[in-house]
Amino acid sequence: QVQLVESGGGLVQAGDSLRLSCAASGRTFTDRIMGWFRQAPGKERELVAAISRNAGRTFYADSVKGRFTISRDNDKNTVYLQMNSLSPEDTAVYYCAAARIGTMGTKPNEYSYWGQGTQVTASS
Protein backbone atom coordinates (compact mmCIF):
# COMPACT_ATOMS: atom_id res chain seq x y z
CA GLN A 1 0.00 0.00 0.00
CA VAL A 2 1.09 3.54 -0.78
CA GLN A 3 -0.63 6.61 0.60
CA LEU A 4 -0.08 9.90 -1.19
CA VAL A 5 -0.75 13.40 0.14
CA GLU A 6 -0.37 16.44 -2.12
CA SER A 7 0.20 20.00 -0.99
CA GLY A 8 1.19 23.33 -2.49
CA GLY A 9 -1.74 24.21 -4.71
CA GLY A 10 -3.41 27.60 -4.69
CA LEU A 11 -4.54 30.68 -6.58
CA VAL A 12 -1.89 32.63 -8.46
CA GLN A 13 -1.64 35.20 -11.21
CA ALA A 14 -0.67 34.22 -14.73
CA GLY A 15 3.11 34.09 -14.97
CA ASP A 16 3.60 33.11 -11.35
CA SER A 17 5.10 29.89 -10.04
CA LEU A 18 3.96 27.14 -7.69
CA ARG A 19 5.65 24.08 -6.27
CA LEU A 20 3.57 21.02 -5.57
CA SER A 21 4.74 18.35 -3.15
CA CYS A 22 3.55 14.78 -2.73
CA ALA A 23 4.49 12.91 0.42
CA ALA A 24 4.31 9.14 0.13
CA SER A 25 4.07 6.53 2.84
CA GLY A 26 4.77 2.86 2.33
CA ARG A 27 7.88 0.83 1.71
CA THR A 28 7.71 0.62 -2.09
CA PHE A 29 8.04 4.31 -3.03
CA THR A 30 11.52 3.83 -4.45
CA ASP A 31 10.33 0.89 -6.57
CA ARG A 32 7.77 2.97 -8.43
CA ILE A 33 7.65 5.45 -11.24
CA MET A 34 5.83 8.55 -9.96
CA GLY A 35 3.62 10.85 -11.97
CA TRP A 36 1.69 14.08 -11.77
CA PHE A 37 -1.67 14.25 -13.53
CA ARG A 38 -4.17 17.05 -13.88
CA GLN A 39 -7.85 17.26 -14.66
CA ALA A 40 -9.66 20.41 -15.69
CA PRO A 41 -13.47 20.68 -15.61
CA GLY A 42 -15.01 18.81 -18.52
CA LYS A 43 -11.69 17.34 -19.63
CA GLU A 44 -10.02 13.97 -19.26
CA ARG A 45 -7.29 13.39 -16.74
CA GLU A 46 -3.92 13.86 -18.42
CA LEU A 47 -0.38 12.88 -17.52
CA VAL A 48 1.64 16.05 -16.99
CA ALA A 49 4.99 14.63 -15.91
CA ALA A 50 6.55 11.38 -14.73
CA ILE A 51 9.86 10.42 -13.19
CA SER A 52 11.71 7.13 -13.03
CA ARG A 53 12.59 5.36 -9.81
CA ASN A 54 16.11 6.81 -9.57
CA ALA A 55 15.13 10.14 -11.17
CA GLY A 56 17.33 9.39 -14.16
CA ARG A 57 14.52 9.77 -16.68
CA THR A 58 11.63 12.15 -16.90
CA PHE A 59 8.61 12.64 -19.16
CA TYR A 60 6.68 15.83 -19.81
CA ALA A 61 3.53 16.57 -21.72
CA ASP A 62 4.18 18.92 -24.63
CA SER A 63 1.99 21.56 -23.03
CA VAL A 64 4.31 21.93 -20.00
CA LYS A 65 7.77 21.26 -21.46
CA GLY A 66 10.20 23.98 -20.50
CA ARG A 67 7.91 25.31 -17.76
CA PHE A 68 7.37 22.40 -15.35
CA THR A 69 10.01 20.28 -13.63
CA ILE A 70 9.38 17.00 -11.84
CA SER A 71 11.81 15.75 -9.20
CA ARG A 72 11.90 13.27 -6.36
CA ASP A 73 13.74 12.81 -3.08
CA ASN A 74 13.79 9.11 -2.28
CA ASP A 75 15.23 9.75 1.18
CA LYS A 76 12.14 11.79 2.00
CA ASN A 77 9.65 9.68 0.00
CA THR A 78 8.54 12.86 -1.74
CA VAL A 79 7.96 13.89 -5.33
CA TYR A 80 7.74 17.50 -6.48
CA LEU A 81 6.36 19.45 -9.40
CA GLN A 82 7.83 22.90 -9.93
CA MET A 83 5.49 24.91 -12.15
CA ASN A 84 6.72 28.16 -13.69
CA SER A 85 5.08 30.65 -16.04
CA LEU A 86 1.61 29.41 -15.12
CA SER A 87 -1.23 30.30 -17.43
CA PRO A 88 -5.02 30.00 -17.09
CA GLU A 89 -4.78 26.87 -19.26
CA ASP A 90 -2.90 25.19 -16.40
CA THR A 91 -5.88 25.58 -14.08
CA ALA A 92 -6.91 22.11 -12.89
CA VAL A 93 -6.89 19.69 -10.00
CA TYR A 94 -3.42 18.16 -9.84
CA TYR A 95 -2.98 14.58 -8.67
CA CYS A 96 0.10 12.72 -7.59
CA ALA A 97 0.15 9.03 -8.51
CA ALA A 98 2.33 5.96 -8.04
CA ALA A 99 2.67 3.51 -10.90
CA ARG A 100 2.35 -0.25 -10.54
CA ILE A 101 5.71 -1.87 -10.10
CA GLY A 102 7.08 -3.02 -13.44
CA THR A 103 5.06 -0.64 -15.61
CA MET A 104 6.37 2.23 -17.69
CA GLY A 105 4.05 4.79 -16.14
CA THR A 106 2.95 6.29 -19.45
CA LYS A 107 -0.78 5.65 -19.12
CA PRO A 108 -3.29 6.47 -16.37
CA ASN A 109 -4.29 2.81 -16.03
CA GLU A 110 -0.71 1.94 -15.07
CA TYR A 111 -1.06 3.95 -11.87
CA SER A 112 -2.50 2.16 -8.89
CA TYR A 113 -2.27 4.74 -6.10
CA TRP A 114 -3.58 8.30 -6.22
CA GLY A 115 -3.57 11.30 -3.94
CA GLN A 116 -6.65 13.32 -3.14
CA GLY A 117 -5.70 16.15 -5.51
CA THR A 118 -4.82 19.80 -5.03
CA GLN A 119 -6.41 22.72 -6.88
CA VAL A 120 -4.21 24.99 -8.96
CA THR A 121 -5.81 28.13 -10.36
CA ALA A 122 -3.95 30.66 -12.49
CA SER A 123 -5.95 33.79 -13.18
CA SER A 124 -5.35 36.15 -16.07
Features:
globular; mainly beta; 124 residues; 7-stranded mixed sheet
Q: What global shape is seen?
A: globular
Question: What oligomeric state do these chains adopt?
Answer: single chain
How many individual helices?
0
> Rg from C-alpha positions?
13 Å
Low-confidence stretches: none
Mean pLDDT: 95
Structural class based on helices, strands and sheet pairing = mainly beta
Terminal Cα span:
40 Å
Proportion of residues in helical segments: under 10%
Give a short account of the largest sheet.
Answer: 7 strands, mixed
Helix-strand pattern, N to C? Answer: EEEEEEEEEEE
Strand content: over 45%
Task: Compile the SSE list and pairings.
Layout: E1 3-7, E2 10-13, E3 18-25, E4 34-39, E5 46-51, E6 58-60, E7 68-73, E8 78-83, E9 92-99, E10 111-114, E11 118-123
Parallel strand pairs: 2-11
Antiparallel strand pairs: 1-3, 3-8, 4-5, 4-9, 5-6, 7-8, 9-10, 9-11
Question: Your description of this structure?
Answer:
- The protein has 124 residues and is mostly beta strands.
- The protein has no helices and 11 strands.
- The protein has strands at residues 3-7, 10-13, 18-25, 34-39, 46-51, 58-60, 68-73, 78-83, 92-99, 111-114, 118-123.
- The strands form 2 sheets. Strands 2, 4, 5, 6, 9, 10 and 11 form a 7-stranded mixed β-sheet that branches. The chain has a 4-stranded antiparallel β-sheet with strand order 1-3-8-7, with no helix packed on it.
- A hairpin with a 6-residue loop joins strand 4 and strand 5 (46-51).
- The radius of gyration is 13 Å and the shape is globular.
- The mean pLDDT is 95.
